[in-house]
Design goal:
Strand 3 and strand 4 form a beta hairpin. The chain has about 70 residues and is mostly beta strands. A five-stranded antiparallel beta sheet has the order 4-3-2-1-5, with no helix packed on it. Helix content is about 5%, strand content about 55%.
Length: about 70
């Protein structure tokens, strides 16, 4: 399986606390994730932290509209 690093824009959600409105006007966080490329289609990619060839664990689906940069690691 290919290994990729993905820089993507994440949603922002305060942890149930009161926050200043100015805090919410800032940029969305850019997250860097890396893993085995499990699946890709027009709308999303799926990466996983661990893989044994037939099974994966720690999978994450990232919408392609959120992806800012992507790099093939291997």
């Amino acid at each position: 399986m290919k290994i990729v690093r993905v820089d993507w824009i994440d949603a922002q959600h305060p942890a149930g606390e009161w926050v200043s409105l100015d805090t919410l006007k800032g940029p969305l966080p850019v997250i860097q994730s890396a893993g085995f490329l499990v699946h890709e289609d027009r709308h999303k990619i799926v990466i996983a932290v661990s893989a044994d060839g037939n099974h994966v664990s720690g999978e994450m689906t990232i919408p392609k509209v959120c992806i800012r940069k992507r790099k093939l690691i291997r």
